[in-house]
Predict the structure.
Amino acid sequence: MWPKCKQVFFSLLLMLALLPLNAVSADTGPKPSMDFEFKQGFSGTPLAITNGILFECERSDCQDAKPLQQLGPQHFSCTATSCSALAYGFSTCQRLQIQFSDGKARLSNIFTTSQFQASYQVTIRQEDLLVEPKVSLNLFNPLTYVLIYGGCLVGIAILVLVIVLLIRGAAKKK
């Protein structure tokens, strides 16, 4: 019997050794995001966004500002009327620099990340931008809610199972 088990074992070991070893990486889970909605704060021809940069800063005065890098899904992009950012993680402080159709590049005030999926109202002024957080109760995306509820249900099921097993064990001792 043992020789047959050894043969099966070594056959399985040989098959595993011959399987290709591919490196696997996954980028899972939700990532923090920012959405910027623009409104013009002065009269005149409506301005369109032509280009933009989101600067990240660790210092509150933004003297160490660096543009958000494009790395995999991490990005900052703009349409003619809005901008959005997705990152592995944002710095403590941020600042926008947006180029508009009038040829001017306007710099925003320094602002902090307001929440995981943050929304901001950006007022376009004559010489600069004013970024203000929009209050939102939507803290998570739908997948996150499903995972939270699923985790709670699994936790409750495990708790009920433990209680049932304890009650059965106590009943058997009597």
User: Anything to note?
Assistant: Strands lie at 33-40, 49-57, 66-67, 75-78, 82-86, 93-100, 105-108, 111-112, 117-124, 128-134. The first strand starts at residue 33 and ends at 40. The mean pLDDT is 86. The longest helix spans residues 142-173.
